[in-house]
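Please predict the structure of the following assembly.
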Amino acid sequence: MIELRALTKRYGETLAVEELTATVRPGRVTAFLGPNGAGKTTTLRMLMGLVTPTSGEALIDGRPYRALREPLRAAGALLEASGFHPGRSARAHLRALAVAGRLDAAAPDRALAAVELSGHADARVGTFSLGMRQRLGLAAALLGDPRILVLDEPTNGLDPQGIRWLRGVLRRFADEGRTVLVSSHLLGEVEQIADELLIMARGRLVAAGSPHDLRDHAPASCEVRTPDGDRLSEVLRGAGFAVQRASETQLAVSGPAEHVGTLAAEHAIVLHRLVDTGGLEAAFLALVEDAET
Amino acid sequence: MTALVRAELIKLRSTRMIWWLLASALALVVLAVFFTIPTPSGPQAPLSLNDGDLLARAVGVGASGGEVVMIVLGILAFTQEARFGTDTATYLAAPRRGRVLAAKLIAMVLVGALFSLATLPVAVATAVGLIEARGATVAWTGEVAAVLAAAVIVMILFGAIGVAVGAMVQNQIAAVVGTLVWLLVIEQLLVVLAPSIGRWTPGGATTGLLQLGRAATTSGELLAPVAGGLVLCAYVAIIGAAASATSLRRDIA
């Protein structure tokens, strides 16, 4: 379990993270969402003992990371901007970490197998593609077979197959009763596997809950294509909806698709296309926009 | 702590850097010895081929080639981690950074001893070969053994000073260039121009430790060997403590 209590980080005049309080529970995949610069990375680095909070605390199984006796067994992390020596082999990189963390001698090879890099164990990391480096970073996170997995933008550099494979890893991890916290600035990447969402904007937590809870708060919206854009706009505005004209024939409407369809039928306006654009994505964007204004 | 020291030794062994630095150390040792042994016709050389302590002095000077490499290797222990971003992984595995500093110091002490095993025999062999090739007889005095023992201590302590400096100044170029300018320019001037200050610098203390002072122009101005060694230890302790209190606490982002 991860607990964040009034976690705050100030850089000079800027509040990167402000009074962040949240609990991340085991057995679920928790997605940590927010636009770039929202403070996600700073939060995760405070959690992992790399950045010292200005105030508040971040606890892993009840203790700050720096106070954990066997940190690699408690929590594994893949963090952005963490790197590799290009002249060192993948296996040597992991071996140094496994020895420092007092893990068993087979841990590096097990982790390499788990991320499907066994065939490149002795290659220098300098020869690796971005996707292979990302896998090696994940191998380092998995090295201690930890109870908690913390991943910061793990899909960077992964191809679509890699992303699907990663989703499988996270799902299995959570199903085994472990804790998964995965950050992303793209809702679409984590929407399918997230059991819980934490949404951050401008350093503050703006929403927390299941995707279902959040979808209910989404403002309805849809996109319409019609040969009779002028008349449909007039009708929809008359019914109280906000309408944006993308072109002569395309409209973005802040209202549920069912109402728009019904109104068009009542006024005998031909529609060529009607798409519901509400839902989680809209809820996410609305929350983030609210926080930023 | 043993585990962390082993991890540091794995890091050192697993890149080519350490072998390049060992090769550099050997090359510098040979060059330093070569330019210390006078030629028979060389006029007004500070040393003559018939000096009884020529071998000891040549070996002492040769050791200084290795010590510069050791301080650079020590600096790289931290700055390479900062440069390649491996510090994140290092502190995830060992979140208490003071322990990482201690492990890097101990690892560098071991490496300093191992480097000495490679460089000092080369220094002795080069010196003996050159003295004999130039027609003089080699005088094996007790001083040679003393200088060799002192040189091992210097190699070890320079590596340790380097680790402390790298912990303090984690920008690799700034740390390496600053240290080399200090050792090779500023200190050399201080030792000659203001020996009362110069003898307390790492280089001055090293000269004292290596017992090279007797025939030097700054005779009497240098620290005794034991005091020189203690001064070098004090540099490790002071810079290391300062780093623990400041730059080692910084946010890793």
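DSSP finds eleven helices and 13 strands in chain A. The radius of gyration of chain A is 23 Å.
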